[in-house]
Amino acid sequence: MLRHLIGVAFGAALAAAIFFGGGWGVAHMTHLSAQNISLTSISGLSALGVLLLVGLFLGILMVAPVSPFSTALPGAVMLAWTGLLGLDARLAARIIPLRGTAYAAGFHAMLVSGVLVLLGTLMICTVFVPSRWRRGGGRRRRERRRWKMMFPAVPRRLACSLNLPQ
Prior knowledge:
This protein is mostly helical. It has helices at 2-34, 42-63, 69-87, 89-94, 102-113, 115-124, 138-150, 156-161. The radius of gyration is 23 Å and the shape is elongated.
């Protein structure tokens, strides 16, 4: 249970990283492209670096042994937001927080270009991996359970003397 609560906290942190880091990076890169400035400038490299850090954080959460909620919840929000874009584009743009900032402009660009649906689909895939829902150390626990099922009446002291799993 605690693992899933930590996963929800990581999910909130990932959502903030995608909104603030990804939004700022995309807005900054779009601005540089409009001014015909190369990505090899300090400004371009900083935007690229922020996007790389957000991607690294996402990648770590995709493979780390934390709850699948860490990526599934922000992914579901991104897919829902893209679905809302298909139903009512004005409403989807209006509910973007901090309108008028570079973060929101970049997030809007990711929304209308389809990047959020791609990220959301990728992030939802972790829910369908059964091993992500299991705890670590399952082999020893399964072995203990198997022994208890086979020998339910073996006293603890006897199990210790016979070197059986307890």
